[in-house]
Write a structure and sequence with these properties.
Length: about 180
């Protein structure tokens, strides 16, 4: 089965100086970089997803802003696909499925941000489309959230999403477990 690496929304907006800083984003980007480097060295195709808001009132991911740019450590090179999305789900109203099909991709490895939003949406959509999916948990990041007066730390948000994936959607691995040992 031909594998494709999907790098979701590792953009400047999520850095500590961005408008939506994520817990552990630097470590997640460093791990994603290892996965991307391995893919490039072995010829696996890499598909970069970049979120651009179609509603400037949101205040982040504004087209043309510094925040919307992909973080330099994981920027696309050469002919790597860049898919711009305006929705949480990277498959919705984008060329992602068409690009995967054009490259003969049958299995996906997913890294990026935010675990509980865009990663969640793309994993579930991919599985619904028939792709076997592996999520590399330490190459993903999220943030603290709250609901009904309950504050939920990012680590718990991330763990809950990864547990849900592992329960019924995807293989969940660390980058060390995914990458071959030297």
């Amino acid at each position: 089965m031909k594998t494709g690496i999907v790098v979701v929304d590792l953009q400047n907006e999520y850095l500590p100086a961005g408008k939506l800083p994520l817990s552990g984003i630097e470590a997640a980007v460093a791990s994603a970089r290892r996965v991307i480097d391995h893919a490039r060295s072995t010829g696996l195709p890499v598909f970069h997803i970049r979120h651009e808001s179609d509603d400037n009132a949101a205040g982040f991911f504004i087209k043309g802003s510094h925040g919307v740019e992909t973080q330099p450590a994981v920027s696309p090179t050469g002919e790597e696909a860049v898919i711009v999305k305006n929705h949480i789900n990277a498959f919705r109203e984008t060329e992602l499925k068409k690009q995967l099909d054009a490259r003969g991709i049958q299995r996906l490895v997913i890294v990026g941000a935010m675990s509980h939003m865009c990663i969640d949406a793309v994993v579930r959509a991919a599985v619904d489309m028939g792709y076997p999916v592996t999520v590399l948990h330490d190459a993903c990041a999220t943030l603290d959230v709250s609901f009904g007066g309950v504050n939920v730390p990012a680590a718990h948000v991330h763990a809950a999403i990864m547990a849900a994936f592992e329960f019924g959607y995807a293989a969940v691995k660390s980058v060390d477990d995914y990458l071959p040992t030297k």
